[in-house]
Amino acid sequence: NAGVMQNPRHLVRRRGQEARLRCSPMKGHSHVYWYRQLPEEGLKFMVYLQKENIIDESGMPKERFSAEFPKEGPSILRIQQVVRGDSAAYFCASATQETQYFGPGTRLLVL
Amino acid sequence: DAKTTQPTSMDCAEGRAANLPCNHSTISGNEYVYWYRQIHSQGPQYIIHGLKNNETNEMASLIITEDRKSSTLILPHATLRDTAVYYCMGSWKGGATNKLIFGTGTLLAVQP
After folding, report:
1. Pick from B19, B22, B9: which is nearest to B77 by CA?
2. Burial level of A89, CB count in 10 A (0-12/13-18/19+)?
3. How far is it, in rounded angstroms, from Cα A46 to Cα B77?
4. Regions of chain B where pLDDT drops below 50
5. Exposure of B55 by Cβ count < 10 A (0-12 exposed, 13-18 middle, 19+ buried)?
């Protein structure tokens, strides 16, 4: 996990609020993946981004979720109007052509 | 992406080799076998990957059968810190997208 940074590590939101999760990839990596892990479940792919481009968002819920990876700065996963079912651990991974390296995750709790 | 089958759980004595099997009979010719592990809610940790040949690194060895329908991850001297869920996956190397499909994995419990 060395090098991939995520913040915040823990985030508490009330229903209807917005959640912003940040991911800074390893130095020199321009590919970022986001995964979600619901309680007691495995990780599920959400979205794959390169700088300024969304490459594959087939795992993203159709509403309320968006992701970006700007030219400068971290990748952002944004959840609008959070609901209790959004409570989960969100992991990002940055990648070389061969391997993905995961961050420590952000644990979102929706009250 | 290949469908993989792993035992739900395994035990191993500390200091002994842990051999974790994985069946991936539907893996295609260009898909690599990747192994990751997740230690108690931490981010998944990359272990090793391979295509056809056996591979070894500082963490583990990967033995892939000649027909590529199964593989075994070997931790040569398991420690208590190796207790984790181990995931085996088939994935394309490189290309436009390389998303990982996590199954349920094997919970390896290393016993003192």
Report:
1. B19
2. buried
3. 35
4. 95-96
5. middle
Task: Specify the pLDDT at position A66.
Answer: 97
Q: How many CB atoms lie within 10 A of CB A59?
A: 16
Pairing of strands A88-95, A75-79: unpaired
Above pLDDT 70, what percent of chain A? Answer: 98
Judged by CB atoms closer than 8 Å, whether chains meet at A104 and B45 is answered as no
Q: What are B59-76's pLDDT values in tens digits?
A: 999 999 999 999 999 999
Residues of A with CB under 8 A from a CB of B: 1, 4, 31, 33, 35, 42-45, 48, 55-56, 59, 89, 91, 93, 95, 97-105
Q: What is the mean pLDDT of chain B?
A: 90
The rounded distance, in Å, linking the Cα atoms of A94 and A48 is: 10
